[in-house]
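Following up on my earlier thread - several people asked me to post the actual chain instead of describing it. Fair enough. Here it is, all 268 residues.
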Amino acid sequence: MVSDSNKMDNFVTSAVQFVEEYGFDGIDIDWEFCGDHQGWKFVDLLKKLRQSLPSQYILTIAAPGGQQNIQNLKIKEMDQYLTFWNLMCYDFSGQGWSTTTGYHSNLFGANGDNDMNAADIVQTYLQNGVSPSKLILGQPMYGRVFSGVGSNSISKKFAKQDGEDTMNYNEINQEQSEFDHKKVSAYSYDPKTKKYISYDNPQSAKVKSQFVKSKNLGGGMWWDSSGDKQGEDSLVYNFVNQLGGVDSLDNSENNLSYPRSKYLKNLQ
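Reply from S.P.:
Thanks for posting it. Predicted structure:
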């Protein structure tokens, strides 16, 4: 789409019309893996969207964590058009592409399969000039499943199998779980099924919340909310609680004005 100026213009026009017609608060672009020759096209797309969107609407992106993908972005040029950046600090390892078991959303250090961690990703964007308040720490509501694992540890061989490679947080057996305090990741291992799962638990959420506060970041986000638990086991609850509770959150109102909407005009 971005390689053709007419198609890009059509996309921008239709996206803005959609937002205004159905009462959304803005647009999030999920172009996760921009190619090495597409960085300036990404800038052009964001520029056109920002210029076409009325000022009350937000514009964000799902921002990659891998260095090979980050290096393709023109971060400084993109930043001027973005309200904030949703950093995808998860999927660092996985059954489909990793060579050994590893944490997929650890905050610090090597994860067992590679060197990726959330703190380094945040630092990369900071070093490229993004204000801390515009960085949102992405966290998973699911675990990455590794099959055919012989022991309860990262950096172990596993059997590449078709089928389940993710599991919602609310489906993981907490009785078999442990927590790596140094790298900030929970993990579960079932010796009967030989399945190893790396994921975030309430301890992860609490530590990551403190990290967000210490770095003066803009907040946190999750993929996706359907995987959360209720009450004190909720990842969102534990994260927000460390920030100071609900009163500490952004309390700006949603967009409730639809002057150009044909669909919503009768609901005002």
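The mean pLDDT is 95. That should answer part of your original question.
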